[in-house]
Amino acid sequence: MKKLRLIEQIRESGVVAVLRGDSPEEVVRMAEHAIEGGIKAIEITMTIPFALEAITALAKKYQSSDPSADNYAIIGAGTVLDPETARATILSGAEFVVAPALNRDTIMLCNRYRVPVMPGVVTIQEITAALELGVDVCKLFPGSLFEPSIVPTIKGPLPQANLMPTGGVSLSNLKDWVKAGVFAVGIGSDLTKEAVAKQDFSLITSKAQAYMEAYREAAGK
Questions:
Q1: Which PANTHER family does the record cross-reference, listed alphabetically (predicted)?
Q2: Residue 134 CB: number of other CB atoms within 10 A?
Q3: Do the Cβ atoms of 92 and 59 come closer than 8 Å?
Q4: Which pairing describes strands 185-187 and 117-118: parallel, antiparallel, or unpaired?
Q5: Domain hosting residue 42, numbered range
Q6: Is the pTM of this model over 0.85?
Q7: Which of 85, 107, 117, 178 is deepest in the core (most CB within 10 A)?
Q8: pLDDT tens for residues 165-212?
Q9: By CB neighbour count within 10 A (0-12 exposed, 13-18 middle, 19+ buried), where does 182 fall?
Q10: What is the CATH classification number for the domain harbouring 187?
Q11: Count of C-beta atoms within a 10 Å radius of residue 164
Q12: What's the number of domains the chain is made of?
């Protein structure tokens, strides 16, 4: 039941913040400001040095059973390339796992622990393979390769596929992706690059607020 609840809460959140940085401390700050701005699904990428420290710190601070609580957020791990890394992130507190590509062993590991896994896919064949392995959400990556019109094209033969474009999603096209019928969207550098450049992390809060407002308007919430 917990896995199904998490998947539904990620869908309700609508926007997943994909965070990269130079240190766990920097990424924790990014996450705190994104959560303050209303984004409740946070993906900490494993390209960050000592990334597990950031996952653990955020999981301890924000994981709550009550989605309406101020200290609630869903903390997950991204750029997970293999099952060993997946298990390490789960033990550190990650509640969902995201990968850039389709890796059978990683998916099987996450299924074993009943943790939502979102592998990167590009082709119909990869999406079909993911569904056969029990994947609940397919990360359409890089999203910049596609236009939002790809979603109904894929859902023609595969209406059961839940798609989450990541990479190339912006405030200018978020509405089109949502209207096309995606499960959620992943937001990367557009959320943080200005804040990092100016060393003003409050800009992440305002950008997160803008993304959530755009999402709610597009989704009619």
A1: 2-DEHYDRO-3-DEOXY-6-PHOSPHOGALACTONATE ALDOLASE-RELATED, 2-KETO-3-DEOXY-6-PHOSPHOGLUCONATE ALDOLASE
A2: 11
A3: yes
A4: unpaired
A5: 2-213
A6: yes
A7: 117
A8: 999 999 999 999 999 999 999 999 999 999 999 999 999 999 999 999
A9: buried
A10: 3.20.20.70
A11: 23
A12: 1
